[in-house]
Amino acid sequence: MNTIKQFTCFLFILLPSFLFAQDIIKGKVTDENGKALPSVSVGILNTNISNVTNDKGEYSLNNVPEGNYQIVAYFVGYSKETYPIQVKSNTVITQNFTLKENTRELQQVEIIGVENESYNNAYTFSATRTGTMIKDAPLSISTVTKELILDQQAYYLSDVVRNVSGVNQYSLYNDYTVRGYRNQDGQLVNGLKTAFNFWTQPIIGLYERVEVIKGPASALFANTNPGGTINFVTKKPLTVQQNSATVSMGSFNTYKANVDVTGPLTKNEKVLYRLNAGYQKTDGFRDNMGGESFYIAPSVSYIPNDKTRFNIDLVYMQNDTKLDRGKPNYEGSTDLNQTPITLSTSQPGDYLKLNNLYTTFSWNQKITDWLSFNSSYMMFRSTGDLAEHRTNGKYISPSVLEMRYVEREEYENADNITNYFVSKFKTGKVGHTVMVGVDYSSKTYDKNERQARGEADGVPNFDLDNPQYGNSNPNDYIYNPSRNVEMGAGSYTQNHTTGFYIQEQLDYKKFHLLLGIRQEFYKDVRIENGNKVSKDQNALLPRFGLTYELTPTINLYGTYTEGFQPQDYKMNASQNGGPFDPRKSNMWESGAKGEFFDGKLSATASVYMITVNNILVQDPNDVDKLIQRGEEQSKGFELELNGQITPALSISTNYALNNATITASDNPEEVGRQKENAPKHQAGFWTKYDFQQGTLRGLGIGFGGQYVGNRLTTNPELVLDDYLLWDMALYYNIGIFRISANVKNLTNETYYVGGYNYDRVFPGMPRNFTLGLTVKF
């Protein structure tokens, strides 16, 4: 990393500040007992003017133009209050709120609709399942809100993770590194396990926010990745009518459209609805790539009374594209610019057709004033149909690669249900939140596949100096029966996991203690030589953490947790070299969390150490096999800031120092080496300034950057250079319309988000733009 880039990397955490304007509307928010409520959102409906209360329950709204408005105050666990208000020039208005506790708004299974308009998210359901303020939770939780997603015009998960410390892409697939550890699956939706296909990234337009729960989360979610767990929170119905639609166009013949409508279906607001739908078509910047995708996501909530709420989500996603295996390069050459970033080995007739369908049912029931019951069920179905030309992992000469052709049908599903009770009570001065529950999940994978390899099977070689497309016919290939895999014949794998867990959150004065333990029963089933083979694995998984309120705005915390992850059922199959022992992990972490500028800006700083055993890596002697590595350790420091400095200035910035190394291996040359695709330094920065007065009122400017340090690939001689990207955006709000223009990679940097070997590295997108128009109706 050169001096300029290193200096710029640390500049990401230095933030500007601006003077506050005069208060126009101010007041205090309390509960029914007169107790001040901090972190309550207060805002003007149908505007971008909002704020949150400080630790004394006080708020202020600045620069509100003259006119008649509806001012609203809302907070998780309380009924929303709305008042009409008239603003006149040069006046200071006082409007106080008294909020009533209401389980209709407190849903431990994340089934609420959120009206927030900020880069800052103050609470989490998934990390504890009890509805906890993030500053009181003794662990790192990173959040990317829908407002930041909108401002950056993000479409895929890869567009989002740049805003999260310690997370970077491993490849162009649904494949990421979190705190140094590869996260290939295990993503959650509303805290429930999914079966997203590995070959493309999830579309994120239908989600309220994206959370990354750092470290092993097995004590709550069973088998999870040791570096962190990615959780998608779906948009839910609101009690107010809100409608918006966006259309956009951009580089590489990219066109997008999406719609988001929500509101009550009945006058008494007992039945609410929401519908999200989106579409994208693009040629992409890579040869023979591109495609189209769409999603539709209806949601309905039924609230018969203040004690009961039901919610049903249905999501369907379809992606018709091609599998991008990355850019091939000359054998043994570390100069990756010898071949263009557009070069791919895909042929015109290749395709990848993916379908995801999932539905979620959630029920929250308040039984008494101190006891509630929560139940959630998700059914997830995923299918894939693939035809691809790809490298066979062999070079005929430094510029000629042997190829293979693959046709594959995949079927994958996940079913999971969780049921738990939450009890809130006090013993003297000690507050208790006790959760007791049981969950069950199962995953199934099956495929039908045939392959032809090399010129002996009729598949032409690929010449980097003279690439040819459309010069062969898959119908003429010779398919070796020994490489064919039929549904259920050596391809079928399934796992079942059942967990019993208990968690206690104790609150005493300035201390918040979290204690949890889970008993896990895991069973893996495979078809080997026509026979079912099963294996049982059990684990007892503890976690504990302590938070101390150092000041009214700063908390200190420490935590310890253990992880357990039986190897992925696809990877565990015998044709891949399996079965393998499960990954076991543990993490120590400590840090500080703060809220500043009256709670509008949140900050988290953490140090951690994660140790993992039994890691799967690619066999260097066989591209189709995996082997197990002894131990790896990740030590690091992270810093994140999200929210507002002033009503006009929003920021999201992060920095991560991560030293992820191999600490034990059968290959002594590996010991002490940096882990693959795990940069030591990375940072992200994004800021937006909205002009709120004068002739520029309605105009907004966004600017940011991303830095990722050097990374090793699976070949230790091939190192991916660090890169620094700059992005910019302009917004203009006029009435019900919003016009936006985003330019990414301003300097047209050539960079690689990840890589495996000389024949497969994954180039990032060159300079590109997006123009968008949003209308609220």
- CATH topology (level 3) name of the largest domain: Maltoporin, Chain A
Q: What is the CATH level 1 assignment of the largest domain?
A: Mainly Beta
Structural class: mainly beta
Strand residue content: over 45%
Count of runs of 4 or more consecutive helical residues: 3
Instruction: Count the E strands.
Output: 45
Provide a brief overview of the structure.
It is globular and about 80 Å long.
Overview of the molecule:
The chain is an all-beta fold and 777 residues long. It folds into two domains: 1-102, Immunoglobulin-like (Sandwich), CATH 2.60.40; 233-776, TonB-dependent receptor, beta-barrel domain (Maltoporin, Chain A, Beta Barrel). It has three helices and 45 strands. The strands form eight sheets. It has a 22-stranded antiparallel barrel. It has a five-stranded mixed beta sheet with strand order 11-17-18-15-16. Strands 1, 4, 7 and 8 form a four-stranded mixed beta sheet that branches. The protein is globular, with a radius of gyration of 26 Å. Its main location: membrane. This is TonB-dependent receptor.
Overview features:
mainly beta, Immunoglobulin-like, Maltoporin, Chain A
Question: How would you summarize the topology of this molecule?
Answer:
Layout: H1 3-11, E1 23-31, E2 41-44, E3 50-52, E4 58-62, E5 67-74, E6 81-87, E7 93-94, E8 97-99, E9 123-124, E10 132-133, E11 141-145, H2 146-151, E12 167-169, E13 176-178, E14 181-183, E15 188-189, E16 192-193, E17 207-214, H3 218-221, E18 228-234, E19 242-250, E20 254-264, E21 271-282, E22 291-305, E23 308-321, E24 351-366, E25 371-397, E26 400-427, E27 430-453, E28 462-463, E29 493-508, E30 511-528, E31 531-549, E32 554-565, E33 583-596, E34 601-618, E35 626-644, E36 649-664, E37 681-690, E38 699-708, E39 711-712, E40 719-720, E41 723-734, E42 737-744, E43 752-757, E44 760-763, E45 768-776
